[in-house]
Write a structure and sequence with these properties.
The complex is a heterodimer of chains A (330) and B (253).
Chain A: H1 7-24, H2 32-39, H3 45-80, H4 92-105, H5 115-137, H6 141-164, H7 169-180, H8 188-207, H9 209-214, H10 219-224, H11 229-251, H12 257-265, H13 273-297, H14 306-324
Helix pairs in contact in A: 1-3, 1-13, 2-3, 3-8, 3-11, 3-12, 3-13, 4-5, 4-6, 4-7, 4-11, 5-6, 5-11, 8-11, 12-13, 12-14
Chain B: E1 4-13, E2 16-26, E3 31-35, H1 42-49, E4 57-62, E5 65-66, H2 72-78, E6 79-82, H3 94-99, H4 114-126, H5 142-155, E7 160-164, H6 172-187, E8 191-195, H7 199-205, E9 208-213, E10 216-222, H8 223-226, H9 229-236, E11 238-243, E12 246-252
Parallel strand pairs in B: 3-8, 3-9, 6-7, 7-8
Antiparallel strand pairs in B: 1-2, 1-4, 4-5, 9-10, 11-12
Classes of the chains: A mainly alpha (330), B alpha/beta (253).
Family (chain A): Belongs to the binding-protein-dependent transport system permease family. FecCD subfamily.
Subcellular location (chain A): Cell membrane
Membrane topology (chain A): Multi-pass membrane protein
Chain lengths: 330, 253
């Protein structure tokens, strides 16, 4: 299959459309003209508040979260040469969630609204630093995955312990909210805090994307054609870690988009990991914006969590894609 | 013209010696077969001489520059290396895989400069892959895949080719095709250091043989001089009948 040049422009267009649709739809539908006027700073005060302070930041938060997970997933799959890799595999999401849960448990979040996102970020960076240290020492990808599995398992156990010991039901429900993942009530302030990390991580991944193509040949041959394997590992792991940390800080733990989006994108870009980064980011962002619209317009008693919906759509799609794959040369 | 030289090169894994004080030299116009039983240290010797594996002693150089200190891209522009393990992680097109041979020149699949695209075309032509250029690699046979890897190595247009068992698991026809490709590469001014297990194939094509046994190089010279019944017994522990470049193995000793 030849790379499809229309893919990226089409995804950009679809993403813009979806974000605009997210401004239209909701508990109170708004007609297109009122939304357009409000977007350009006119119209009624109420319209401007709904668009600029509720719907637009929420849609952009969903998009940024998806984009970070999509690009991280695509890059990690290229690095580990495994289509099932995603930030979760390396324990980054779990570690970020653990740190967030920790700050909830000790009530640190009461100190400042920034404590929770910062804790998530620190958790992601702690995991990526561990992985980066392992990446310097080992030549083996399997070892890296095992280190990730270890981090995931430890973070999961520690999280269960904290939930077991939760002092009040209120704290428990707070923790669960965070673990399920949601972009409800996000403002431009929170988006502004996460965005630099997502952009920095994404930039690192894009800067080192050529090496991901080289790794198609396997590590041995990739070194042979001139790839500095160690630097490539460090850049990809740190880039994915920082971007994922930003996304967890913004929306909590949201799974599967990091696996599903690159899977869908890959055939359109000639299965080249480097060329899959940007389309994967766009598609994952688009998926989360659409899923979040679904969350908001579904007439349920309690609003569904975005992470739950993402997994409900993502997991079956992932299984379907995985079963349809042809055997590749390992 | 690239020259690869090892002087008293040793490799250790922990306490175990993998290569002991190996000396060799491979240059342009030579087809050197590296021969030896499994575990003799052939792969470690190749890797260490290219600076891909840490040597515990001695020195390896590519064009008078220390291999271990050469930047990976600089090394890749001088020597094309085909490792034993050649897994392809994704079902890319043949052309994209061959394009990776231009990595050291800053190219990437889908982003080839004019010079890179020409080199890729030439490599596809030399290996007879023009018609398969847009096929996905997971639809190819083992013989076709082996040619894809060779095309990838040729695309770098490096002066020296180092290949680790390039014809293992190929049928006779494909073995000869690969060996012919190497021979053409050498006729065009390249040099090759190739690990081979098929001794009759090695004897037929190589200009020189380096024999390894138990981590050491035990012989290095023209095929006619080094390929003897005694050496076959000493290195491989097999009875063999040798007449000039023809060799027939009769059994284990």
């Amino acid at each position: 299959m030849t790379p499809n040049r229309a893919l990226t422009p089409a995804l950009v267009f679809a993403s813009l459309l979806a974000v605009f649709a997210a401004c239209l739809l909701g508990s109170t539908q708004m007609p297109i003209d009122r939304v357009l006027i409000a977007l350009f700073g006119g119209g009624e005060m109420g319209d401007r508040i709904v668009v600029w302070q509720i719907r637009l930041p929420r849609a952009l938060a969903a998009f940024a979260t998806g984009a970070a997970l999509g690009i991280s997933g695509a890059a990690l799959q290229g690095l580990l040469r495994n289509p099932l890799a995603e930030p979760g595999v390396l324990g980054v999401s779990a570690s970020a969630s653990l740190f967030a849960t920790f700050s909830l448990y000790y009530g640190l979040v009461a100190l400042s609204p920034w404590v929770l996102p910062i804790a998530a970020m620190l958790g992601a960076l702690a995991a990526t630093t561990l992985i980066a240290l392992a990446a310097i020492k080992t030549r083996s990808v399997v070892t890296l995955i095992l280190v990730g599995v270890g981090i995931s398992a430890f973070a999961g156990a520690a999280m269960s312990l904290l939930m077991n010991l939760a002092p009040t039901p209120f704290t428990l429900s707070d923790m669960i909210n965070w673990m399920l993942g949601s972009v409800a009530n996000r403002s431009f302030r929170e988006l502004g805090f996460a965005a630099p990390f997502i952009l920095a991580g994404g930039a690192m991944l894009l800067a080192s994307r050529r090496g991901l193509s080289a790794l198609t040949l396997g590590e041995e041959a990739a070194s042979g054609i001139g790839l500095n394997l160690r630097n490539q590992r460090i850049l990809t792991v740190l880039g994915a870690g920082i971007a994922t940390g930003g996304s967890v800080a913004l929306a909590g733990a949201i799974g599967f988009v990091g696996i599903v989006a690159p899977h869908i994108v890959r055939p359109f870009v000639g299965h080249d990991p480097a060329r899959s980064l940007i389309p994967s980011a766009l598609l994952a962002g688009l998926i989360l914006v659409l899923a979040d619209i679904g969350v908001r317009i579904l007439p349920t008693v309690n609003e569904l969590k975005l992470g739950v919906v993402a997994a409900l759509i993502g997991a079956p799609a992932f299984i379907w894609i995985a079963m349809g794959r042809r055997a590749i040369h390992d | 013209m690239t020259e690869l030289i090892a002087e008293k090169l040793s490799v250790h894994a922990g306490q175990t010696a993998l290569v002991t004080e190996a000396d060799f030299r491979v240059g342009a116009g030579e087809f050197v077969a590296l021969i030896g039983p499994n575990g003799a240290g052939k792969t470690s010797l190749l890797r260490a001489s290219l600076g891909l594996e840490k040597a515990s002693g001695g020195l390896a150089s590519i064009d008078d520059e220390n291999s271990a200190e050469l930047a990976p891209m600089e090394r890749a522009r001088r020597v094309a290396y085909l490792p034993q393990q050649r897994p392809l992680a994704w079902p890319n097109t043949v052309r994209d895989v061959v394009a990776l041979g231009r990595y050291a020149y800053g190219a990437a699949p889908g982003r080839l400069g004019a010079q890179d695209a020409d080199a890729v075309e030439r490599a596809l032509t030399k290996t007879g892959l023009e018609k398969l250029a847009y096929r996905q690699t997971d639809t190819l046979s083992g013989g076709e895949l082996a040619r894809v890897h060779f095309a990838r190595a040729l695309a770098s247009e490096a002066g020296l080719l180092v290949a680790d068992e390039p014809v293992a698991a190929l049928d006779p026809r494909h073995q000869f095709r690969i060996m012919d490709i190497i021979q053409q590469y050498i006729a065009a001014g390249g040099g090759a250091l190739v690990v081979l297990h098929d001794l009759s194939l090695a004897a037929r094509y190589a200009s020189r043989m380096i024999w390894m046994k138990d981590t050491r190089i035990v012989a290095d010279g023209p095929v006619e001089d080094t390929l003897t019944a005694n050496r076959m017994a000493e290195v491989f522990s097999v009875r063999a009948k040798v007449e000039g470049r023809a060799i027939e193995i009769e059994g284990a000793i």
